[in-house]
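question for whoever is on the cluster today: can someone run the full assembly for these? two chains, 734 residues total. i dont have access anymore since they changed the login thing
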Amino acid sequence: MGNERIRLAHGSGGRLSHDLIEQVFAPRFSNAILDRMDDAAVLEITGYRPEDRPEGFTSDSQLPTSGLPGKLAFTTDSYVVSPTTFPGGDIGKLAVCGTVNDLAMGGARPLYLSAGFIIEEGLPMDELEGIVDSMARTAKQAHVAIVTGDTKVVGRGQADRVFINTAGVGIVPPEVTVSGRNARPGDIVLVSGTLGDHGMAILTQREGLQFTSPLASDCAPLNGLVEAIFASLRSTGDGCCEADVHCLRDPTRGGLVTAIKELALASEVGVELDESSIPIGDAVRAACELLGLDPLYVANEGKLIALVAPGVAQRVLAAMRRHPYGGDAAAIGEVTSGRAGQVVIRTELGAKRIANMLTGEQLPRIC
Amino acid sequence: MGNERIRLAHGSGGRLSHDLIEQVFAPRFSNAILDRMDDAAVLEITGYRPEDRPEGFTSDSQLPTSGLPGKLAFTTDSYVVSPTTFPGGDIGKLAVCGTVNDLAMGGARPLYLSAGFIIEEGLPMDELEGIVDSMARTAKQAHVAIVTGDTKVVGRGQADRVFINTAGVGIVPPEVTVSGRNARPGDIVLVSGTLGDHGMAILTQREGLQFTSPLASDCAPLNGLVEAIFASLRSTGDGCCEADVHCLRDPTRGGLVTAIKELALASEVGVELDESSIPIGDAVRAACELLGLDPLYVANEGKLIALVAPGVAQRVLAAMRRHPYGGDAAAIGEVTSGRAGQVVIRTELGAKRIANMLTGEQLPRIC
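^ ran it for u. tokens below:
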């Protein structure tokens, strides 16, 4: 890629983002954990072997009495959304939810976050304080603690107000086995609610558009919803278990289709979606029609996709609908043994079309 | 701080950075781990309790057989250095070393890093590839794996080329107890080598200055040096142990004095430094004199300060000097029962002066 230059679409979450990762990052950083390309890395912590202990310190009583009952999940995202405040949230809320959600999509219980700020000289202090308040409030709601951080300041015109990076650490219970590579033919595709709300809220705020129904971001921490899904599969007495949830993913940049396509590629399966069953709010549908956008490619920040074994689909769907963030959950398709990575959409008229990854940059700086 | 605006000096690592943390971040994010204000957060992972296990999964054989023999360290830093390439390194090398070093200063063995890129539209792809190559090479040298990442692209003029955030996870062996709050009167202050090299290399590169002796950044991963320090205290047969190392810190932004002052404040002790014993290279000394800078406030990226019990100081110093990154190590002062947070410098003429935290921004975007 030597003679190219970075384009906005390299940050879209679509085709060019995929190429950038495949051609620049993955070959250079390659290792067994990164190569899985899941939203969160799942780590086996085996760094300190008993035989490394010095001779004076061999008593077992000096080791912690309880070990790590599960694997560690680790993830990061930077947030550059513009404007920094929008209906339904702000960059601070987004920075906590986004990373909590990536951990939750790895099947982890999010525990700890870091926060790294890059601030443009001249940012009003009260704007920063508002963002930090929002992060603190959202962290409390998501039951995570922000435990370490960093602040950098760059000159005017060297950044745009404020960028935030959060990284997160969580624990994956031993029974949970979700991974982007676990989808199997026959799995049911569930989505936790209406699509496109975040992206359309940002876009209309940015462009100063007004619609009769107000658009608001769906930005929310989804770890509670994930916990409710797993809880619905425990102690059922009929052999269901957490491992029946094969994949979880939050359809952020690139929207539903990009997320589904990534899962299909990673699992080497096909997916068929039923367009008429995909929940989309009236305001989002109207705004998308007006602006010529496809809501299936618009970003979400408070929705998840679950690919589950067919036998547990109704149970999981019911659990999602009982949760405050899953009221509009729906079954929208199934995994097939079709061509690996191919996503087919059955239209309302019964025709089928092949859905591709987003190619241009639909909305820059959406998250 | 409501009516203020962010100034460059809020990112200096000095007085205003300290105020920003104390007044904006700490009160809002407050929790027992963050409040320790160490370079890396040390976490107790107890998230998944045995009683949470579902009934079908109670066999112990389904739990991992080896637990977590130590505590987890977690840290983050964003890197905004300008220019992105400089004598002795680049932003990629810095982004790996800085976070590896923060983990090592927490007494941890660094294991895993995340990498978050914020890229300005138009960045030449080969420049990005060079930076990513450098990160991969440095990670290999430091024995850490980059396991998760994120890329955002912002428009021209909304960032300056590329900013990188890395977060890191490591394990703290149970015998290690370093913390910024552990300094005790009588402790010896050791430094691992010459001071000011990184800051002066960046500054002279940025300003196009030429000196007869070339200046190069000291940017290096220090986990091997920390390991050598701890190894020198094991199995000594005379009662020394890792716990005799009370504090470790890398004097980055704000330089030696700022780092020492932070330790003195956190530990509620005084520190007295002997100016003539502080190692400073001839080229750095000459450049600082020419530019009117104090090398004790200039940033380092490959040096550490260790505050150790007096009985082990010679042993630790010898171990540092045997290591490739500690050849110029020196004992430069001692911890006193003087006024909490006060750092006194004995000048070469025998006078004493009180050293304060950096107040302005000496060199913006140094790391």
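summary bc i know u wont read the tokens: The radius of gyration of chain B is 21 Å. The first helix of chain B runs from residue 15 to 29.
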